[in-house]
Amino acid sequence: QIRYIIPEELTRGSFVGNIAKDLGTDVGKLAAANLQVLSDSDSQYFSVNVNTGVIMVSERIDREQLCGQNPRCFLHLKLAIENPVEFYRIEVEILDINDNPPEFPAEEVSLRIYELASLGARFPIQPAQDPDVGTNTLQTYHLSANENFNLNVKARTDGGKFPELVLEKALDRELRAFHYLVLTAEDGGSPPQSSKIRITIQVLDANDNHPVFDRPSYGARLVENSPLGTLVVKLNATDVDEGPNGDIRYSLSSHNSAALRQIFAIDEQTGEIRVQGNLDFEEATVYEIEVEAKDMGSPRMEEHCSVVVEITDVNDNAPEVILTSFSSSLSEDAPPGTVVAVIHVRDRDSGDQGKVQCHVSPDLPFQLRKDYEHQYSLLTSTRLDRERVAYYNVTVSASDLGSPPLSHHTILPIILADVNDNAPQFEQASYEVLVAENNPAGSVLVTVSATDPDSEQNSRLSYSILRAGGTDPGLDPTRYLSIHPTSGQVSAKLPFDYEQTTYLQFHVEVSDGGSPALRNRTLVHVFIVDQNDNAPQVFFPRAGEDSATQFRISRSTTPPALITKVMAIDADSGRNAWLSYHLVEATEPGLFSVALRSGEIRITRTLQETDASAHELLVVVRDAGDPPLSTAVTLVVLVEEEGPEALQGSEAGVADGGGLPTITLYLIVSLVLISTVSLVGLVVLGV
User: Fold this and answer.
1) Residue that is last in its domain, among 95, 117, 142
2) Residue 277 placed within a domain
3) Structural domain that includes position 373
4) Segment 144-165, tens digit of pLDDT
5) I need a surface site. Which of 245, 633, 658, 679 has the fewest CB within 10 A?
6) What is the pLDDT of residues 366-414, one digit of tens each?
7) Transmembrane region positions (predicted)?
8) Cis bond upstream, residue 495 (ω within 30)
9) Which residues have C-beta within 8 Å of that of residue 536, sequence separation ≥ 6?
């Protein structure tokens, strides 16, 4: 085996070795032996000049292509000769030359490093590749000067060198967002070769800066009752971070009360605080809103500020009337100055808008007394009378001093409690009643009625009958009459008899249910009206039952001689006692007549011889009642021939009737008295 050593990249025809010399043979012999060169590879890198025995380079030899990173590179040849056949092995070692500079995979590399990366953090850089070997391969790296990174070259067991950037100083994106470095790779050749790569380092933002408001606190002033959507203030916060770390969202802090959150709302994008609820100065004069601004980083950072909102009062609250003490029922005899209600007034506004004045109508018997600020007493100003006005609706008006003023009206219903200060009053001072006699027992004669303007128990009336002064002590009205205690109906206990009692007078007393009870009286006159309940009674001539009275007259009696007189009386009065006499039957009609009113029986013509000697007369006495009542009497007139006897009969008749004038006078007087009393009663009744 023959061994040669040549460098790579020799030009074609370059000398490698002299095979004849190295084999120790004659050059001519090699030519005669038909020398051939056989290569193990597909390419014929070498050729042999058979005339000289010199081995030359026939093709370009690139060690890196042939052997890669192997430290030693060999090409093997075989020499074949004939006569006799012999083979010789030739080994050509290809030596590396520094024909390749180190090369990076790219001209530029970009790194993204978190700005909060810890010191000493390592960031590998894709190493450069140098196909040369030995000292000609990559030997070292150089990093351009900078403040934050150092270079560390990590050697592997296989000889490879890997560069690493080592963070020596903390990064701050807000100070410097990009770093530009140059990394140089250099081999050990002579002269050395090198290549460079540009390293662009982008410092990734870390959420290391919290939002900052342009002011630590904000102030605003609003009028209460501002409409919904009114802009309160626009907040402005900035964050020097970028991306989500610098994207700010505004919100109301959780320290705010739920009530405040209902009144104010904030736009999370713009930071505008607007009114979304009712602003009421009376509930709060100042609102302090805690606002927080948060970025969208991870973790999220926040900042707080306060917004002080002052509310300006307007006259938007009417006065309020509060009854501290109130009695809706008041006794009608309460003296003036009696306290009916204690009233507290208030106005939730401030200043003059919160000052309240109260008054009531001057037409009412009430007045307001100011006890002290915000308190009034409602008093009675005059005497009260429930019977005149039973209740009052007292309107208490409260108005503030705002512009325009607001007012509130409260109605206090006051009911006057009754006092028994009114006696019952009859509808009539006296009552006059006409009652027909023989009335049925229990019939209502009259209803007396009284009224009492008091109420309830004080107006519950009770009626009773009292004897009237000046009446007959023996005539007790309660014997004949009764009265219903509540309705006032006067009823008859017994039927009246005009012939016994013609007139009753009594008092009806009414009393209320108060304590003490009040009373009043009225006088009742009861006039008994006569009824035709008595038939006429004949008292002359007197005759027994079923018998007739006889009278004797002379046949010579001439008309209009008085034969006799029928006398009757009637216990009734008035028309019922007006009597009339009627000749109903006669033996000789037309011979005798009866006076209609006086009852005198007279002869109407001269007696004839042919006339009967006895005449029977039926006289009926009838009153003028409706219906009329009557009584009949039978008379027998005997006609005698002898004059003296006739005369004597006549005289006897006169003697028998000697009492006639006195009786007649009595009847006339009785009729006059009865008529007078009846007339007076009718006149009084008419009045």
Assistant:
1) 95
2) yes
3) 320-417
4) 999 999 999 988 777 788 899 9
5) 658
6) 999 999 888 999 999 999 998 899 899 999 999 988 888 989 999 999 9
7) 663-685
8) no
9) 568, 569, 570, 579, 621, 622, 623, 629, 630, 631
